[in-house]
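Holo model, heme C. Inputs:
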Amino acid sequence: MSSTKRTTTRTDRQSVRALGAAAVLLATLGGVLVMGGCRGDRFEGRPRQFFPDMDDSPKFKPQTKTELFEDGRAMRRPVDGTVAFSAYSRTDAGDRAHLLREDDAFYRGVNAQGEYIAMIPPSVKVDAKLLTRGQERYNIYCAVCHNYDGHGKGMVGEQWSYPLPNFHDGKYKHGYTETVEDPQTKAKKTVEGKTGKDGYIFSVARNGVENGAKMPGYGHALSFEDTWAIVAYIRVLQATEDGKLNIDVPADKRGDVQKLIDEAKRKWEEAQRAAEAEAARKAAEAAQKKQQNTTPEKQP
Ligand code: HEC
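Output:
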């Protein structure tokens, strides 16, 4: 009795399920019919656009036609005399000379003859603010290779396949001269070497080393002022190793600086003595070990 009842119930459920499935199928079919012609389907009519303004925004594509202008071209030429406005320059729009980058010394580090200028141009005010800025920029962009002290042994510089130049080398200092030979007369003469000039260091910082050598330029990341600030800071780094107390330090600061020098000397000598003592201790230890190893062990 109970088993018959169960069978009936199951049949009822099955028919309900069948009905449900048929309904879902119908709905899907209907959906497909309605949606026919969407992207990816073959359809004879115009594609349906649910958000037409996103498909066809009101703009001109390059090389297209328009009725708007007499010549029918959508692409327009810039107004005569338009000058590209760089993102990396000062934005004083009224300054025509600046926008045209007319000042060779400031923008390229060269004079009218195209030679590198010896000193930072007078339009750049070298003061404590500029030097601090130069230190910050140098530490960001140059120190990885040239190191914080300019000796060329930065984290990346040390891994380089050849030793990086040392900014404390005479050839990178003001007044550096070199002897060159005239290719025709073979006569030798002394000229001011370019590597010692501010304009050259400026140019290398912005454009990299000439003749396809391995240093990349940082002009994309440095404003012109910042590049001069870096040049000024490299001069400061050089002065840290060959500055003259009686010349480079104002009279009222000489006492303080002398104290710092004496203190640094004392520390250096201390460190030197400690290193010597440590080396002697290690040598004695090694000698003792060697003796122990050579002395035959007593057999019990
Ligand atoms: C990715 C490493 C790297 C960075 C960063 C780098 N340099 Fe150099 N720099 C070099 C290498 C390598 C050389 C040697 C190039 C050569 O002559 O082959 C060099 C050479 C130089 C020279 C000497 C050029 C010569 O003709 O003797 C100057 C000056 C210089 N760099 C300045 C800078 C300044 C300023 C910065 C920061 C704006 C900077 N460098 C950042 C790798 C670097």
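The pocket of heme C is lined by residues 141-142, 144-146, 156, 160, 164-165, 195, 201, 204-205, 209, 213-215, 218, 230 (CB under 6 Å). The longest strand covers residues 177-181.
Archived with the compound record.
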